[in-house]
Design a protein that fits this description.
Helix content: 55-70%
Radius of gyration: 17 Å
Distance between the termini: 58 Å
Number of strands: 0
Number of domains: 1
């Protein structure tokens, strides 16, 4: 099998991302779209040990790190949380740490990056602000990519329902209805 060139891989992820964004009715700035394409491409080439350390440790270390290192650590946390909570959403249900945890951690990391970028008057502060504010939208987009392009199988309906439970996506609800499933979330129990 012939190796994909960088430009071909970039084009592939741009097409896949744009298709998923259309399906999920999500729009973004061009800068954010470009960033998400690069993020997907980076995970294709991620080091084997990328996921070895818990993100919470990376996050806590970032708060104690000097400014230049803090930026990189927070970016790693935000990007990894977005990727994992979108692409592997369904598998997180069988883990100790849920998709909600990753989503909150990623949102928080991007929020800190927004503040850092604004405070230093450098870097893509608007980009990180958009990623923070619309984190759930971009998780839906990555989940769509996972659903359509990466992990086909007999569990499609369960995957869409699970994704809908976390994101309440209108397009997922319509898909479920077309396949004879009425999306209904269980009532949340409050324990005091």
């Amino acid at each position: 099998m012939q190796a994909l060139s960088r430009s071909t891989l970039t084009e592939y992820f741009r097409d896949v991302l744009q298709s998923a964004m259309r399906t999920q009715a999500v729009r973004s700035s061009e800068e954010t779209e470009f960033y998400l394409v690069n993020l997907l491409e980076a995970f294709v080439r991620a080091d084997k040990d990328w996921f070895d350390r818990p993100l919470a440790i990376e996050y806590l270390e970032s708060l104690q790190s000097p400014l230049p290192h803090r930026y990189g650590k927070l970016k790693r946390v935000g990007d990894t949380a977005l990727f994992v909570s979108g692409v592997f959403m369904e598998s997180l249900h069988r883990k100790l740490v849920s998709s909600d945890y990753y989503m909150q951690l990623g949102r928080t990391a991007y929020g800190h990056l927004t503040a850092l970028s604004t405070g230093m008057r450098a870097g893509p502060g608007d980009l990180f602000a958009e990623l923070e504010a619309r984190f759930t939208d971009f998780v839906r987009v990555f989940a769509e990519i996972s659903f359509q392009e990466l992990f086909h199988g007999d569990e499609h309906t369960l995957r869409v329902y699970t994704r809908w439970m976390y994101t309440r996506s209108d397009s997922d609800a319509r898909w479920l209805l077309r396949h004879g499933i009425v999306p209904c979330a269980p009532a949340k129990r409050h324990i005091h």
